[in-house]
Amino acid sequence: MKSAQLISLEIYATDEGRVPFIEWLDSLKDKMVRYRIKERLDRISLGNWGDHKPIAQGVLELRFDFGSGYRVYFGRKADTIVLLLCGGDKRSQKKDIKKAIQYWQDYLGGVNQ
Length: 113
Hints:
Radius of gyration: 14 Å
Shape: globular
CATH architecture: 2-Layer Sandwich
Oligomer: single chain
Number of helices: 3
């Protein structure tokens, strides 16, 4: 039986030092929601992805089926590295996807390497 490959989670930061994913996570008022999102990220680090799908231009979306339909947007740097870009919910999805693509392109452009 093949063992799961461990995944390293990294968090994107802008040139100005902003960290959109952490800003979003910290803005969530419900501590249980924050806990469940962090718990899911822990499972991803163990190779258990759950509900996710590619969105556009190398950005992928983790989908959560509780609360407001939370989403976490990320890019894969390698087989074992995930870069968390930003998060949101179903209401802000279009805007969040645009931001995630912008952050991913910024990262790929060498700004954060």
